[in-house]
Amino acid sequence: MAATGASAQDYSGQTIEYVIPFSESGGSAQWANFYAPLLSGALPGGPTMVVRYRPGAGSTEGANWFQTQQDKGDGTLIFGDSGSTKFPYLLGDPRVRYQYKDWQPVVASATGGVVYLPPDLGAKFDGDMDDLKEEFYLYGSQGATTLDLVPLLAFKMLGLQVDPVFGVKGRGDGRLMFERGEANIDYQTSSAYLANVVPLVEQNLATPIFTWGSLNEEGVIVRDPTFPDLATFKEVCEATEGCETEGTAWDAWKAFFVAGFANQKTIFLPQSASQETYDAYVAAAKQVVSAPDFTEKAAETLGDYPQLTGAAAVEATNQATNITDEAKQFVLDWLKEDYGITVE
C-alpha cells in the first residue's frame, strides 16, 4: 500500500532498507554506504538506514527481486542500481524481468572516464583522431557487453583499429597492461585515473586525450567537471572525419554513455510510494547534496560530479533507460559482427 502523508513525513523509530544488487566489496557498496547515513540524517524523524546486499547475475537478480517489491511504498525500502544493471536492460537480456518505468528515481549519481595513449601516439593528437587512424591498438577489456561497450563503440566511431583483449578482471588490469606495454590505448574511471594514471602522466608515460564528458541538468553532454581542460568524446568526434554526433550510432553511444557514466548509479523508491513519500526523499536528497561540506565529503567516493535529484534524476534515468529500436539493433548487430556476441 502507498504511504500516507503523515507516515511519509515522519520515520521516527523506523528502519529503512537500502538494497543494492552487488556484494559489499565493490564501488556500489561504497556509494550506498556514503549516502545511507546522510539520507538517514536528512529524512524526517532520522530513521536508521541499513544497506543490504543482494548480488547475483551481474546485478540482475537483485533488480528482479526489487521488481517484485513494488507494493512496498511506505518509504522503508529503497534500491540502488548501477550501469551494469542498466546495460542488460537496454540490450534486452532475457534474464531481465525488471522495468525501470515502475521505479521512482530520487538521486542520480555520475562518474567520468579519461582515455589516454602512450606519449608517442598522444603527440599526434591535435583535437581529432585523423592522424591516429593508421595505428593498430590493443585494449585490455572486461568484455564487450560490460561498461567497456562505451569505449569500444567510441573507438569504432572514431575509425580506430582497436583489437580488444577480452577477459581482464577489471579496469586496473587494463591499466597494468598499458604500463607493461601490452596495450597502447586505455581508459580509466575518474577516481582510478586520478589515483593511478596522473602519476604516469607526470612521468611522461601517458598522455590523456579526451573524456567521456558529463551530463548537465538539461541532458546535454558538457565537459567533465573533474577534467575541464580535456575535450569530450563528443568534441573529438565532431572534429574527426567520418565520426558523426547525430544518427543511429551516436544515439546508441549516448544511450550507453548515459547509462554507464552520466547516470551510473541511481536511488529508487518503489512504484507505489506516494507523492508525499517521494517528496520527502527528494527534499532529504536535496538537503544532503546542497550542504556546504558535501562536495568535500563526496570528492573521494563520488568525485566532482553532479548529484541529480528529483526531476533532474527522473530525466537522467529516462535518458539512461531508453534506447530507440534502431540504436539497440545497431549495437546488437555490431556486437555480433565485430565480436561474435549474441545477446539471447
UniProtKB/TrEMBL annotation:
<dbReference type="InterPro" id="IPR042100">
    <property type="entry name" value="Bug_dom1"/>
</dbReference>
<protein>
    <submittedName>
        <fullName>Tricarboxylate transporter</fullName>
    </submittedName>
</protein>
<dbReference type="InterPro" id="IPR005064">
    <property type="entry name" value="BUG"/>
</dbReference>
<comment type="similarity">
    <text>Belongs to the UPF0065 (bug) family.</text>
</comment>
